[in-house]
Amino acid sequence: MSDSSESLTATLLGALQGSISVLLTALAGYLTARFGLLDRNSIKKISNVSSLLFLPCLIVVEMGPQLTVKDISKLWIMPVWGAFSSLVAHLAGWAGMAALKLPAWTVVASGRANANALPLLLLQSLESTGVLKSLSGEGESPSETLDRAKSIVLLNSIVQQMVTFCLGPVLFKIDKDRKSAGQDDDPEGLRPGRGPSVYPTVQDREHVGLLHDYDGDYGGDDYTEPLHQLENVPNMDIHSRLPPGLSHAIKVASKPVKKIASFFNPPLIGGIVALILGITPPLHEAFLSKDGIFYNTITEAVSNLGDLFVVLQMYVLGAQLAIVKSANPGAKPTLFVLFIRYIMMPAASLAFVLFTAGRGWYTNDPLVWFLLILVPCGPSAMLLMNLAELMNIDQGPVAGMLTVSYLISPLIAIVCTLGLQVVDKVQQRS
């Protein structure tokens, strides 16, 4: 890499082109939905199959080869930084909520970046424009660098999901309690998930494992209940048919099981499968080695399915914004969230890599350094829409903020450019 102004301009242009291509992908989904080619049910079905099938497949084929015992010892910094940076952003959002009297959803919006769609598609664009080549390892082709980058991003996204679903529902409940304490805008007494649905985008079906969806007809009701409330569904109360002692024992034993199950979702399951395949030599050889007996059949099929996820996710994201009736979130909440996502977190990530990388504290890999800068930055995750639906709060302001956040997403090109300059400086120092 060069420090010349010509190199800097080329890097900025390449990153800008990549970020604009991401925005145009979302725009295609937006226009498709606006012109009526996709309706709510279609978007929901695409979201479901993408999150339940395509994303776990992508995680298995991209993370598996990188999750050997040797590689895990090098990549530990990524999930640690992912969790820590997310907590820092949430705390900043909490401070803003308390000081500026902002709605509680701004805390989640501040704390959770788009950990899947934007980084993955942006990396593809950076590879096609040649920007990613500067981060390739010795003897590594740009396509191999891209595959390795995807695996690192996906590792971080799994951690981000766990943080969000520990904190998100608690924070959104604050807005729900505020609404209840004020005036009741829900005359029909709709429970979370039973009102008019705003179906989540692909990334934001991350709640799978927390909810259980019933698409069949149960007396006209569309059941979307927490797992621990399945007894409310007709014909599901089996405990009343058992002896009292056995029924009580089952209920007691089921509590920890349900608690553990609530943390499981398709991406996490995909990560567990990838870990098992990666650290088990016979399985690694059979499924992940190009000479493996299952590589050209099962692994290739899984890879084809996983490839559908990256572009489709941003496409559905745009369609999701088109069908949600946006409302003005207010200048103060919007500007505060944008400040956290586009200024504070990029500054924190750049400073973290600048002062810690290349000192032997963690891996001396320029690609990892760059991704440590990239993944905590950028627009908020569409997961906010899902949480708003789950907690039965007004989704309009959330959708309005997200629309603005994604419209200015090409600003991530500046973060990419500064990130590459920081990585270059660290390389020269180490």
Any descriptors?
mainly alpha, single chain, two-stranded antiparallel sheet, 16 helices, Na+/H+ antiporter like fold, 430 residues
Task: Please characterize this protein's 3D structure.
The chain is mainly alpha-helical and about 425 residues long. The chain has two domains: about 5-205 and about 265-430, Up-down Bundle (Na+/H+ antiporter like fold); about 210-260, no CATH class. Helices cover about 65% and strands about 0% of the residues. It is built from 16 helices and two strands. A two-stranded antiparallel sheet has the order 1-2. The longest helix is centred in the middle third of the chain and has 41 residues, at about 140-180. It is globular. InterPro entries: Mem_transp_PIN-like (IPR004776).
How many alpha or pi helices? Answer: 16
Task: Based on Cα principal axes, name the global outline.
Answer: globular
Backbone CA Rg: 22 Å
Mean pLDDT: 76
| Number of separate structural domains | 2
Give the CATH level 1 class of the largest domain.
Mainly Alpha
Query: Roughly what fraction of the amino acids lie in strands?
Result: under 5%
- State the CATH topology of the largest domain: Na+/H+ antiporter like fold
Strand arrangement in the largest pleated sheet = 1-2
Q: What's the helix-strand series?
A: HHHHHHHEEHHHHHHHHH
Keywords: Membrane, Transmembrane, Transmembrane helix
Protein name: Auxin efflux carrier
Subcellular location: Membrane
Transmembrane segments: 12-33, 45-64, 76-100, 260-281, 335-355, 367-387, 399-423
